[in-house]
Amino acid sequence: MAMLEMRDVEVSFSGFRAIAGLNLSVNQGELRCLVGPNGAGKTTALDVICGKTRLARGHVRYRDREIGNSEEFRIARLGVGRKFQVPSVFKELTVRENLRVGLCKPHGVFSNLVGRKSGESAERLEALACLVGLADELDHPASWLSHGQTQWLEIALLLAQNADLILMDEPTAGMTGAETHKTAELFNQLKGKHTLMVVEHDMGFVREIGDVISVMHQGRMLAEGAISEIERNPEVKRAYLGSGRISDA
Amino acid sequence: MSDILNQVFTGLSLASILLLVSLGLAIIYGTMGVINLAHGEFVMLGAYTVWFLQKNFGLDLLPCLVVSFFAVAAAGWLIERLIVRHLYKRPLDTILATWGVSVILQQGIRLTAGAELRYVKMPGWLSNAVPVLGVEVSAYRIFIFVLTLLLLAATYLLFARTRYGFSLRAVTQNQEVSRCFGINAARVYSLTFAYGAGLAGVAGALIAPLKSVSPDMGTGAVIDAFMVVVMGGVASLMGTVASAAIIGQVSGLLAFVYNDTVAKALVFFGVVILIRFMPEGIFSVRVRRG
Amino acid sequence: MTDTNSMRWRLTGYVLFCVIILVFPYILNNDYLLNKYARYLIFGVLSAALSFSWGYTGILNLGQAVSFGLGSYAMAMALKLRTIPIQTGAGGLPDFMVWNNVKALPWFWEPFHSYTFAVFAGLGIPMLLAFVLGWFMFRGRITGVFVAIITLAMLVVINLVIVDQQKYTGGFNGITDLSTFKAFGVGFDAYSLSTYYLVAGTLCVVLLGGLAITRTKLGLILQAIRDDENRVRYFGYDVASYQNFAFTLSAGVAGFAGMLYTLVMEFASPTFLSVQLSLSIVIWCAVGGRGSLLGAALGAILVTGVQGNLSESPTFLDTWMLIMGAIFIIVVLFLPNGLISLAEKGVRLLKHKSARETATHPVAGAAIATFDSKRVRES
Question: What residues 51-80 of chain B have any CB closer than 8 A to a CB of chain C?
Fold first, then answer.
């Protein structure tokens, strides 16, 4: 049984159909890469899943629950986490405070007013900071971080959130080669325990992490399969026309 | 029947004044994301310009309108240059700074022109009533209505058909990119701010003969304009027009049934309830965010 | 500079301030001055309340005076009903009702015979109003400048209604000729030490309690909402509830300040919920420092103190508004975090000097890191 199931999803922005009949299903524990030329609707697909964008038609089911057009925070509480293309963290808070916000249970207003810091969460927080190499930055405001470090912080926030389904929009943008490699390692550790959906342009990175790749084009699914199949697929080649090969996209 | 028509005409007259006052506010907000809290004081300045010209030079209202437009536009241009310009990245702070400007303008007028109420004469040829569809309607209110339509058309043409309008739309879409194409974004912003201010000046000049002119007359006017902008959204001029028309008619009706204050309160609560369900206003256009 | 360390500095400042205002009457025991300073401290409470919603949560409430005024009226109504019969009209009706030909006490005045009810109303009505307005705004995802103009519109509308309903509210004159508030056997005359302590105690509780709240996880989430409201949603927090909590709590504190203000001024008036007062609150908060409760309170005390001590002649007050407008613009343009940010900078500089040998400059470190990643991206 698929963990996430999108059926005939349609999204339009003042007449322009960004997604036109998208079908997609992702299984528990899978690491799915979503690729496609610019404007294919990849980011919009993630937006629909996490509730940022309303769908005009179709269904989004998560663990057998309809989540299409639900409020963002309700979807997040079901265990869906999201990383944005432009890394968004809380600039004026320190790294430690950012992570505390990410450790998001409980969610309620009053339980967070009277709740105490538990020793366990403090330990987890430090461990997370170590994992993403920000242990020395814990008490610095997030605005002091470099672009790559900010990406890492947002990834750490998602790990703190402990989401079952993690949606990543270009997680390696602005990272160095070494950092990208480290991200790939991390993602490989995460899959199995978490389910990941990654939108990526960097095909090297996709090759390192991807089992199954879904290719989107003009708001619908063009092809799905292992990377070797995808690279040979003539339709995919046509979609990327101009750039020649998929790797250059 | 004639009662209903009478009421509709009152509503239309209110709506045209509302539209005049809110148009400048909506244009400035729509293009720069700046709420100009000194907008009401621009309206007030327009009214005082007429009072000043009538008192010292005995001018008729029509030439005063033109002078009001340019005088207040110049004031707006100056304020944009000196203050607003530095705050485009901090929209909440623009509200604060323009609030400071409004205090200074209000107090400045109080100290120079005096705190007492002033009165402005209507042109003689507009001061009688005209029969329309069997109902007596004030000629001056018809004049305001027609002039509002003309200004609206002029604004539309300015935005849709001129090179300035093209630059403005480009800058609104993406400032950085427009700059790369050689559009002087700073100049476009200054001009837009000045134009919005000028419209407020004309609005003030036009309502001056209907109400008494006082240093704090702007506060009430700008609150109504806020309601129009909140309800109409910022997507298009149409939203502002429709919103002004609805609020004008509803206020007119409520003021007839109860009184002006109750009408204002009920319109406010109506708008608050509306935004819960249509946060982007009644004329929202769905766009992809971020 | 660690988190706990800067917290210690901040706490020291707050406690020091509380001690100063509490021992103040021992240094200067003058009824007239106590009354005047009590007024300034109430403005401090009001300004700190705004800092909580604006500085910490990013909700710029331009209608803060609504809560203040409603609190003030609630207290005034209770005190009016206890005025000795000579000042009250026939049948125990407040004098202004008699002048307006009201025959019987309106139903919503009745419960104000009870002090307990009045105190709860002074807190509860502003909170309820804020909660309802907040529900509509925050559920509708209205933020930023629209919150500012909607709250300002509400202020103007409620002010108009109160002036308009002269029969029940006293109109322009407000509610005057009040009796003295008594609770637990203590009288709170406007010029008494007890009133000063009530006010000073309130400010201490608001500052220290507020600081404690900002240190909880709730406080952290509020600041996160200020930074990036949308990001917070995707962690599963119901942002609207959090915003409404801050908005409502701030309104409650302002309402309480309003009740105290009635005790100190001995009347309630529509000027307590005027645009001008609301503007002043925002100015105090901005001048002192919106991001700090103490800074905001100090800003209020400083500005009103200067205003009250320079002169009270009308010509001066006229120019004063001009000066205030100019100061406000200058602060917004050049010192967005207020005077307190200068003090914080000073403290940081002192500590930095002593720690220079042991640690590298963090900003420089970050700059190098940024440079690194840039270079790689370009290569």
Answer: none
